[in-house]
Amino acid sequence: MSVLANLYALFDFELNQRKGKSIDEFLSICKKHSAKIIQYRDKVNDIDTKIESIKKLKANFDGKVLVNDDFELAIFCDGVHLGQDDLKAVNISFNEAIKKVREQIGRKTLGLSTHNKEEILLANQLDIDYIGLGAYRDTSTKKDIKGVLGDSIKELASFSTLPVAVIGGVKVSDEIDFAKYKVVGSDLYLYD
User: Fold this and answer.
1) 111 to each of 55, 80, 114, 133, how far by Cα in Å?
2) What is the pTM of this model?
């Protein structure tokens, strides 16, 4: 039995397409595992297809639906998860970048990927709701992994003053327990 406090599942469009899985099948698996959050990642489709998919997830899921990177699409869901490079593309000053994203999304959920102590300490000072910390292990959903953290993830999470979502290659069966930290898993290999 997993000790994940809350399951944070990743719907990666390309991965699901390769696996031959529809959004409905993915949602069924998320519901079976009592997922609380779904992040929608889509690097290939046009804006209309992304909006349609986000709306379908939102209409058929009781938890939060977040969009990856495209904070302009947060209007159709519950928030956005940004990577370090995505934030830098908004503004070189992370504080100014977060201010601009907040102007767009309001008080909707805002998460930021982190990979090391320095990024975590910076994130602690930003107006965000949680950090994604990883990659926990290698994952097929991302080609630009900045390093696999493995067992060091617990120590790194201790530097966060925010809830921590463990990201990158997390499996439902993983035993991840950070005591005082809200831990969720994402980039799940739901089809193994």
Assistant:
1) 20, 6, 10, 10
2) 0.86
